[in-house]
UniProtKB/TrEMBL annotation:
The keyword Transmembrane helix applies. It comes from Canis lupus dingo. Keywords: Cell membrane, G-protein coupled receptor, Membrane, Olfaction, Receptor, Sensory transduction, Transducer, Transmembrane, Transmembrane helix. This is G-protein coupled receptors family 1 profile domain-containing protein. SUPFAM superfamilies: Family A G protein-coupled receptor-like. PROSITE patterns: G_PROTEIN_RECEP_F1_2 (PS50262). It comes from the Eukaryota. InterPro entries: GPCR_Rhodpsn, GPCR_Rhodpsn_7TM, Olfact_rcpt.
Amino acid sequence: MAYDRYVAICHPLHYTVIMNQSICVQLAAISWSSSFLSSMVINVLTLSLPYCGPNVLNHFFCEVPSVLRLACTDTSFTELVVFIFSIIIVFIPFLLIVVSYARILLSVLRIRSASGRHKALSTCASHLTVVALFYGTAIFMYMRPQSKSSRAGGKIIAVFYTVITPMLNPLIYSLRNQDVKGALRRAIAKRRT
């Protein structure tokens, strides 16, 4: 989405040529295949560790950092692999999104009309909000050393990026729709009276 917004705002006349079906398929394929590879490697490494003692997770679901705590062997290699894949799957895309939005911001600042700037920024605001919520919590969860992580804090962060952010997505994206905004205003006005 960040690349789509970048092309739409920075190169609007070339949008249909640049964002063709082939590019969209390639972007989706790269995203899906890298995520699949990451999941497979991390899960194979995590599930091949020896586990002993009470195999009860102090978590809501089988999150890799929580499962690694149950292993009765050194997990530093698996933690390193998780960290490396976190850089590849989480941090690099986040940096690309930040760079694309920085370039969008520079392009928007060159727009002379205030309404044009407002329109350009409003098209990006919802995506940027979701990106900040999701990537902020994911980076905090997966890119810190296990020794620095608390169990309670990990649960809260996990709930935030697995429940709260997806729950907010429809609300954040639908508030760009004028009909939804109007209905929300009417509902709020009706409650006040």
